[in-house]
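FYI - complex with PMT, inputs then prediction.
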Amino acid sequence: MLRDRRILLIISGGIAAYKSLDLIRRLRERGAAVRCIMTVAAKHFVTPLSVASLSEDKVYDDLWSLTDESEIGHIRLSREADLVLAAPASADLIARMAAGLADDLATTALLASDKPILIAPTMNLMMWAHPATQSNLATLDARGVMRVGPGSGDLACGEVGSGRMAEPLEIVAAIEQVLTGAKRLVGRRALVTSGPTREPIDPVRYISNHSSGKQGHAIAAALATLGAETVLVSGPTQEPTPAGVKLVAVETAAEMLAACEAALPVDVAVMAAAVADWRIETAALHKLKKDGGRPPVLRLAENPDILSRIAQRSNDRPTLVIGFAAETNEVVENARIKLGRKHCDWILANDVSLGTGTFGGDRNTIHLVEAAGVEDWPVMTKREVAARLADRIAGSLGYPPLHPP
Ligand code: PMT
């Protein structure tokens, strides 16, 4: 049920806009208040009169309307909603969202929103598959914008493939899921580590690894989407900082440890970073030179184990400490050993052998190891792994009390 929930529906230009009329009816039947913004293109497909009649509210379409601005204003339009839904979300709207444009009322309301945003994309299959669209979607995903559909089938353009807008009832179900389950971690604090560390050899060289930060960043995004106040301590990566996440950028393992300790207390810590096990005992102050002699000998010293330290804090140990295990053989068995040795509650074991693409790729295959047993997850995108993990964390922590003592 969506009784008393307020949905801001943004209708952009696409033949699927006709489905938005049914969508409004379905939402109203469930007790939701629906306020609509139409883009200029949307009005080529459905009339503002139909939209206003079904939503029983006026239609907003003009960023420059003095009357509208004085009555409600574009900021309040998005802030007063519980959820902002773009359906249909055209390739153009998605591109403008990804670029952060605010050149009409729809994009301005989206940019000004501090609420969950759900999009129902629809477009021709070639437009959907185009690298520009996929890159825009990846940008929105990384910012925590949620998506329902598209499905595949006959498209209005006569072609068959991906690009059909999700059906109204699917969209309603997605909204119900977001509004009733999405904020299960409100009031909780989370710490996530991500990316590689860099251990200097001299001012221009370092020891590091191939971690891209995709997995760790996705986990931070998923926890923030569920409402957790999330601190992401990350080594150098190209990944955008997820929406609503506080990033602490570090380079070395020592800096990562200090940043993690500074982030405590937290309810859950997820250590996805690929921390260098060793550093150079004494990094050279000046660039090492090839001076015709023998190559330098680099003496290594062991880095602190951040996961283990956090898991053994006496006063402020997080309720749930979760590590990863990057293994190339005996994946589950080695992870089980790490679980005990590092004193954490769960270990997410993944195979990082050459050819798996786990380091740097978009997919991962997880074995969740805990004292009670092992759960084998199917191969998933790293974002799906993150969503599943966040859901499990929320289930394990339970709901926070509404009125903390
Ligand atoms: O970043 P991506 O390209 O998306 O790749 C994701 C990943 C492969 C890096 C990720 O899924 C992963 O496996 N992260 C852990 C990598 C790792 O260092 O694993 P490990 O088995 O060496 O370490 C076990 C655990 O101890 C990890 O949680 C690690 O963060 C932690 N650790 C390790 C060493 C150290 N000095 N301090 C630590 O906290």
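Residues 193, 211-216, 253, 271-275, 277, 303, 305-307, 323-326, 338, 342, 350, 352, 358-360, 382 surround PMT (CB under 6 Å). The mean pLDDT is 91.
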